[in-house]
Write a structure and sequence with these properties.
The structure holds two protein chains of two kinds. Chain A is an alpha/beta fold. Helices cover 26% and strands 15% of the residues of chain A. In chain A, helix 5 crosses helix 9. The longest helix of chain B is centred in the N-terminal third of the chain and has 14 residues. The relative contact order of chain B is 0.17. The chains are: A alpha/beta, B alpha/beta.
């Protein structure tokens, strides 16, 4: 495996950052020059989000960059992947608002967990330790993120509806068995002179993914803010509103409940195919139930849900569309319900796909809130694909 | 004298202790979930989870003792207080009572055994040659270099299960594979892992968000892959090994692996 140097990464990740077909997107807006900073925008969000701001939050905070940066354009996204950041830069935006973490865990730290050496798993070390390798870590560190609690810290207030808990899991996970490191002899050195065998003497090379992402953020002076616990606490749930709007279901809303829709009868497999097409899902969508069963009453469970939510919702609808559930909870419940002969459908569309529907609504909301700067939505897409 | 469920569990405990895994009475998972030690056993079914399908399939074959790796009532803790008013729960419990079913869970102790049958089963099920495991029970495999796309296609073909989900560049060159079972899907981050093949893990906000990491790796040209085959799929096959292990201890009755059933299908 090739390990690129940091310089190569900077070159690689900044390539295409200027020019490109989207370069003029924001320039066309011809707005008067704005002095609005990222922090100004966040303050407006805090005042207007509709729920009291949880000042102790470690989730909805700046994750990278300087909050006093003057904003040239805002990109709202489901997940600030490197690909999304590249598109943001091409479009002339320097402030990214994301639903998902940017640095691969709830702790959202710019440094990788533990050492980059062999067998170092995330369970072994806490984020926020001294940066391994040093050089790749950004200097323009923003506020908040570094103080983020450990992965799995209890959620702060202002969360989503009780039915939709996106907390750190149920405590139900099987204990994670230790992953023994591969014997050094079985693995060729990662790069000449920096092999695993000499890892004790030489600092391990920086994690190339963290390094590449940090370098791209720093060289383009991007500012990243996570907005999820307050956004998803809104009523009605923006993820449900966005999904319904995309599917053309808004007019079928049942008795003012954004989580219930009475649609014209549709077969379960046709419904699933339609969701897949409309939401641009690749591999994320998975279904339980008789393919030919014709459904009318649709229920939505946005985000990550515990079993209590599925138990409460499935008996009251024909088909339940969820973001993400743990397989041995909601999914096997639905499997048992269907096996018992009750006509029901259960569709899991995926958490990232589901957050996308909510952040699309967020982008529209933000356009009105910060008219001084251009705001656009860029989806991170569906992480998953399926082999043929 | 008729074989009781209590006697089956006692023999299981004795063999585990002999193999270095003394029984831990403190385990909240590994207990009777329906019926009890006095139930007379006519046959034993091992299965991934006490799904209605597994219980009915076993019962139809005259196997009234179910030894399941996972839970029966849709939470790890098998918390019946949250399901007792659910109509499907009532149907399931009525069926078990009527058919003299006894359910015992063996989760924690299976994972303490070496080898851990769930990992052995996963590796077998996805077509990994045991000879390519880097060290006994390392759960890491060094395979001839291939692409993520080819490896994923092979896993899907061997498994025959369509609801497989893959993250990463299909053209990424990979050869160092780490295998996980169930939620014990390892992180894809360590430098000496190219691909993780696992059962289940949170999409975001898990211990480590591997999907986003692998997406970024793909954009940055770092060869990484994540192949998620499902919790059920990853642990079901090891219940075959468990049945083979249990069989010699209970010669009085038939011991058979029964599948808990396919969870998901995928739309066109």
């Amino acid at each position: 495996m090739n390990h690129l140097s940091r310089r190569e990464f900077v070159a690689l990740t900044t390539a295409g950052a200027v020019g490109g077909p989207l370069a003029a997107t924001f320039a066309h807006a011809q707005r008067p020059a704005s002095r609005l900073t990222a922090n100004d925008i966040v303050e407006r969000i805090k005042q207007n989000v509709g729920a009291p701001w949880n000042t102790g939050t470690v989730i909805d905070t700046f994750k990278a960059g300087d909050p006093s940066t003057v904003v040239t354009g805002v990109v709202v996204t489901s997940m600030a992947t490197v690909a999304v950041l590249q598109q943001a830069v091409k479009a002339g935006a320097n402030f990214v608002i994301t639903s998902a973490p940017t640095f691969y865990s709830r702790a959202d730290s710019r440094q990788p967990p533990g050492s980059r050496g062999a067998g170092a798993g995330p369970a072994g070390a806490r984020p926020g330790g001294p940066p391994p390798g040093g050089g790749a870590v950004g200097a323009a560190r923003g506020g908040g993120g570094a103080a983020a609690g450990r992965a799995g810290a209890a959620r702060g207030g202002g969360g989503p509806s009780p039915a939709t808990v996106f907390g750190p899991g149920t405590g139900a996970s099987a204990p994670r068995p230790p992953t023994p490191p591969l014997p050094a002899s079985a693995v060729p050195p990662a790069q000449p002179g920096a092999g695993l065998a000499s890892a004790a003497a030489t600092p391990p090379p920086p994690d190339p993914v963290y390094a590449g992402k940090n370098a791209f953020i720093d060289s383009n002076k991007l500012v990243i803010f996570r907005l999820t616990e307050h956004w998803n606490a809104r009523t009605p749930d923006p993820r449900a509103v966005g999904l319904a709007a995309s599917m053309g279901w808004t007019k079928y809303k049942a008795s003012d409940d954004a989580l219930r829709y009475d649609v014209p009868p549709i077969a379960l497999d046709a419904l699933a195919s339609q969701l897949k097409k409309v939401l641009a899902i690749r591999g994320s969508i998975r279904v339980i139930g008789d393919r030919t069963f014709r459904a009318q009453k649709i229920g939505l469970l946005p985000g990550y849900s515990l079993i209590q939510a599925s138990l409460a919702a499935l008996p009251t609808v024909d088909v339940l569309i969820v973001g993400e559930v743990q397989e041995w909870e909601g999914a096997t419940y639905a499997q048992d319900v269907v096996f018992s002969g009750v006509k029901k459908g259960f569709i899991s569309i995926g958490r990232v796909v589901n957050e996308s529907t909510g952040m699309q609504v967020c982008a529209d909301w933000l356009k009105a809130l910060v008219p001084e700067v251009p705001v656009r939505f860029i989806s991170a897409g569906d992480p998953y694909w399926r082999p043929l | 004298m008729a074989l009781t469920a209590g006697e089956v569990v006692n023999r299981m405990k004795a063999l585990l202790a002999l193999q270095g895994v003394p029984w831990n009475d403190g385990s909240t998972r590994d207990r009777f979930k329906f019926g009890g030690p006095d139930t007379v056993v006519l046959g034993i079914a091992t299965t991934f989870m006490g799904t209605f399908e597994a219980i009915k399939t076993a019962s139809d074959q005259g196997l009234n003792m179910i030894i399941a790796h996972e839970d029966t009532y849709w939470t790890d803790a098998d918390n019946t207080s949250i399901v007792e008013n659910d109509p499907t729960y009532k149907l399931k419990v009525d069926f078990m009572a009527k058919n003299n079913i006894v359910v015992f869970r063996n989760h924690d102790h299976m994972h303490r055994q070496r080898p851990d049958f769930t990992f052995v089963g996963t590796a077998r099920e996805v077509g990994l040659d045991p000879m390519t495991e880097t060290a006994p029970n390392s759960r890491r495999y060094l395979i001839p270099e291939t692409t993520l796309g080819e490896l994923a296609a092979r896993v899907k073909k061997v498994r025959g299960d369509e609801a497989i989900r893959v993250v990463g560049d299909p053209n990424a060159k990979v050869r160092r594979v780490a295998v996980g079972a169930g939620m014990a899907t390892p992180s894809v981050q360590p430098a000496d892992i190219d691909v993780v093949i696992g059962g289940e893990q949170r999409e975001i906000e898990g211990t480590f968000d591997s999907p986003e990491y692998v997406m970024d790796a793909a954009t940055l040209g770092v060869p990484k892959g994540w192949i998620i085959i499902g919790h059920n799929t990853s642990e079901e096959s090891g219940m075959q090994e468990f049945a083979d292990w249990l069989r010699p201890m209970v010669p009085e009755v038939k011991v058979k692996h029964v599948r808990a059933g396919t969870v998901y299908w995928v739309p066109k």
